[in-house]
Structures are given as structure tokens and as C-alpha cells.
Design brief:
single chain, alpha/beta, Zincin-like, 2 domains, 4-stranded mixed beta sheet
Length: 230
């Protein structure tokens, strides 16, 4: 599996193929190429076709968007929270064990209710993400003998996290909707960039050394990323 900043793809070679074909199926990009076509040439082609790839990946995502709110439940790091919605004097989110209660102010007009509800939930997930990722970064950086800088939580459509040359780390709040072992992989991935600010063979060796289930986590994200939406 080959990684880019915005998606990953698999390459399949065939002696009978005469041209390169890009195929998006079930949220995964596959490149089918003739023998003799180098990975560098394929990478150049994929980058040229990136707008097309992203368009089709997003189309798959929209077709399979989850119905968490309709089912009155929300995922949190591998567990499922019962979701209760109420009207009240002040808009607030209350979290208790396995239940999440979202109170939307009665002053909010009906046409704005859904937007306010989603904003409240996203802010709550972002708060959970900052606390959780701060703890996990501390845990993993001690094991990996690295030191990170500031930790930021963001909302991106094309990446799960980042590591800057300043040692600043960023994580996507949507990872709170994934199992904890998947989110943990992203922590190790970004911390590994503190030693290798690229996706070289040495980088992946370091990731695999500390997180042997990295391939399983990447596969989970590829196949289930459409579920990490409100």
C-alpha cells in the first residue's frame, strides 16, 4: 500500500495490460499498470489525477454516510454511547458513563436546530480528542524516546493528523469515533515523523517496531472512514 498525504492506493501489475487504469471501489483506490511501469511514474500520474480521485472517494463517502443521530447513538473510541436530545434553557452537552445528553436551548429556532446540535457535538468530540491525544502522545513519546511540541485538534477531510518540522502535532477529532487502537496508530505514526519527516522505508520500520498492528489500523481507516461522521 502506497501512502500520499490525502489517501493511499494499491498497485497491481499485469503483463497483459497496455495502459494504466485508476479504479476507486469501496472507498479504495487501485492502480492497475503494465509491467515495467515504475512506481515513480505511477506516483506522478496519481498526483496528476488527484482531483478526480478525491471526487470519487468523497462520492463513496456521501453514499454511505452513517445515521448516528437517527439511531440515537454515537461511537467513542470503540464504545457506543446512547444519545439523548433535549430542549432547555442553555445549550450544553452532558457526558455520563455510557450516555451523552445534548441540550439545545429552547431559544434556538427550529431551522437552526440541526446546525446547533452538530456544532455542540463536534465541540464535545474536540474536547475529548484534546484530552485523549495529549495523554497518548505523552505515553508513546516516552516509549519512542522522542519529544513533541504543541498538540492541536483539527477538522480535516483529507488527513488524520500531521507532524510539523517544529514538532507540532495535529490530530483529527473524528478519530474519537474510531476504536482506540486505531487512533493510537495515528499517534505513533505522527510521532515517528519526529525522527523521519517523510514516508521512507526507515519511517515505516520505526512505526512497525512500536506498533505491529499498524497495517490493520490503516486498513480499518480505509474501509471505515465513512463512518467517522456525525
Amino acid at each position: 500500500m502506497i501512502e500520499t498525504e490525502q489517501f493511499s492506493y494499491a498497485v497491481h501489475y499485469s503483463s497483459r495490460r497496455r495502459s494504466v487504469v485508476l479504479q476507486v471501489k469501496q472507498g479504495q483506490l487501485t492502480v492497475r499498470a503494465p509491467l515495467g511501469y515504475s512506481l515513480a511514474e505511477i506516483k506522478t500520474l496519481v498526483l496528476q489525477k488527484q482531483p478526480w480521485v478525491l471526487k470519487h472517494l468523497q462520492r463513496v463517502e456521501l453514499q454511505t454516510k452513517p445515521q448516528w443521530l437517527a439511531e440515537q447513538q454515537l461511537p467513542l473510541l470503540g464504545t457506543t454511547l446512547a444519545l439523548t436530545r433535549q430542549r432547555g434553557g442553555k445549550s450544553v452537552v452532558l457526558y455520563s458513563e455510557d450516555n451523552l445528553t445534548v441540550i439545545v436551548s429552547s431559544r434556538v429556532q427550529p431551522q437552526r436546530y440541526q446546525k446547533v446540535l452538530l456544532t455542540l457535538l463536534q465541540k464535545w468530540y474536540q474536547q475529548q480528542a484534546f484530552s485523549w491525544f495529549t495523554q497518548r502522545v505523552l505515553y508513546w513519546q516516552n516509549k519512542m524516546n522522542v519529544r513533541s511540541g504543541n498538540i492541536l485538534i483539527g477538522s480535516w477531510r483529507t488527513k488524520w493528523g500531521y507532524c510539523k518540522s517544529t514538532s507540532e502535532l495535529g490530530f483529527n477529532w473524528r478519530l474519537m469515533m474510531a476504536p482506540d487502537w486505531v487512533a493510537d496508530y495515528v499517534v505513533v505514526h505522527e510521532l515517528a515523523h519526529l525522527k523521519h519527516l517523510n514516508h521512507s522505508a526507515r519511517f515505516w520500520q520505526l512505526v512497525d517496531e512500536y506498533y505491529p498492528q499498524a497495517e490493520d489500523a490503516k486498513a480499518w481507516l480505509r474501509h471505515n472512514q465513512h463512518l467517522l461522521e456525525l
